[in-house]
Amino acid sequence: MSTLLSEEKIVPFVEALIVEAGDKIRKRINESTSYEMKKNFADLVTAVDQDLELFLIKELQNRFPSHYYLTEETNPTQTVEKDSNDQFIWVIDPIDGTMNFVHGFNRYAISIALCKGEEIILGFILDVNNNTLYSAIKGAGAFCQGERIQVSNTSSINNSLLALGFSAEQWEQKIDVVSIMTAIAGAARGIRITGSSCLDLADVATGKLDSFFHYGLAPWDMAAGSLLVQEANGICTGMKGEPNFIKSNGILVTNGHLHHPYIELMSRHV
């Protein structure tokens, strides 16, 4: 990885690219109310999502022509495999929080991660409205605007603030929604459902949140953010503690102190 980083100067290139992409979104904010539904009424896509994804792929392909792409709108079936150790794959979400974007709720982000085989080695998240850039390098730390970040030290669920989210299918069909809320109500200090898993992950990495969990996420929803959390000394697993959270049914993210307590709490209710 060090050769890739030093010879091709990949980090400053991607940082400049994601900032440029954020500028493009802000210039098209008036188009946010025009959308299409995908799986159901809670799963939306806009022309801005689609155009931005094509822009990012084109720019990265020009710089790295031998790399592959796993993206929400145009390449959703590309896989991240353990056996493909020499294969570089870019995992991209052009707008994480499309529903927020459509409704004018200013919490959405761009997420770009680079995997080598199954290993996530770089992650970048841009909070579009605040123009705040988060980045992580495998083995070298996590950063917000170039400053190193760290998860919280909260050690009790009673003192914790967490975020959660539901898949579009869960929300429409009310699958586990009531049981999940019942498990957390009265246990944690508070719950936030913000509509952007990438920014929720970033908030765990900076210590603003103590935990985050979500069922039904795709790799582009969590690849960059999970590396951010891990490099900030947090823990990411599946909901039952599975190490390969990218391929699990859900992701549980904590500051580390709260991980097993949350696994135990959720196992009693879901």
Automatic annotation (TrEMBL):
Assigned keywords, A-Z: Hydrolase, Magnesium, Metal-binding
GO biological process, one term: phosphatidylinositol phosphate biosynthetic process
Organism: Bacillus weihaiensis
Catalytic activities: a myo-inositol phosphate + H2O = myo-inositol + phosphate
Binding locations of Mg(2+) 1: 72, 95-96, 221
Single annotated GO MF: metal ion binding
Name of the featured protein: Inositol-1-monophosphatase
Family annotation (PROSITE patterns): IMP_1
Binding residues annotated for Mg(2+) 2, in chain numbering: 93
InterPro entries, A to Z: IMPase, Inositol_monoP_metal-BS, Inositol_monoPase_Li-sen, Inositol_monophosphatase-like
Lineage: Bacteria, Bacillati, Bacillota, Bacilli, Bacillales
EC number: 3.1.3.25
Cofactor entry: Mg(2+)
Homology family: Belongs to the inositol monophosphatase superfamily.
Pathway(s) the chain acts in: Polyol metabolism; myo-inositol biosynthesis; myo-inositol from D-glucose 6-phosphate: step 2/2
